[in-house]
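Supplementary Methods. Inverse-folding protocol.

Structures were first reduced to a discrete structure-token string of length 85. This string, shown here, constituted the complete conditioning input.
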């Protein structure tokens, strides 16, 4: 079975972006996840609690998630090709 690398990357990017965005909102309004938000803000420039911080972090997370999941699907496909050869 071959994975569609683009769709796999998009799915990973979307899920990552939503998680980071919801974390920013949850941290701003309910005070939860502040430790994780602080850790992620050291990697994502401009990421902080609140709506705009969540949007900025979501963009960073989408890019990182897309690249990561795209590469995972690409490696998987390469390994599958070697297995069937």
């Amino acid at each position: 079975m071959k994975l569609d690398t683009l769709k796999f990357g998009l799915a990973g990017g979307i899920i990552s972006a939503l998680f980071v965005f919801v974390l920013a909102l949850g941290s701003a309004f309910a005070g939860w996840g502040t430790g994780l938000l602080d850790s992620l803000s050291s990697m994502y420039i401009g990421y902080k609690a609140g709506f705009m911080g969540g949007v900025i972090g979501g963009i960073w997370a989408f890019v990182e998630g897309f690249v990561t999941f795209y590469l995972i699907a690409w490696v998987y496909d390469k390994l599958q090709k070697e297995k069937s050869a």
